[in-house]
Design goal:
This protein is an alpha+beta fold. It has one helix at 59-70; strands at residues 6-12, 15-22, 25-30, 40-46, 54-56. Helix content is 17%, strand content 44%.
């Protein structure tokens, strides 16, 4: 992961979340839970980084997408 991308970890009743942020914006990576059908989901928090939520089957694919969006 790019050193200019910051990570913040959060936990809530529905699962774990990691917030990735850079100068371009912020994206939340929600870890799989029963509501998400075992997929990692990206959600836009700040900035116009992504227009709609995106789902991935692996953490590696999700983090690669985050790297491309925030770098």
């Amino acid at each position: 992961m790019n050193s200019k991308i910051n990570k913040t970890y959060q936990s809530n009743p529905f699962g774990d979340r990691v917030i990735y942020s850079s100068e371009k914006g912020e994206i939340a990576l929600d870890y799989p839970c029963y509501l998400q059908h075992s997929k990692y989901e990206l959600r836009n928090i700040k900035g116009d980084v992504i227009q709609k939520n995106e789902a991935f089957t692996s953490i590696e694919k999700a983090e690669a997408r985050i790297e491309r969006l925030l770098s």
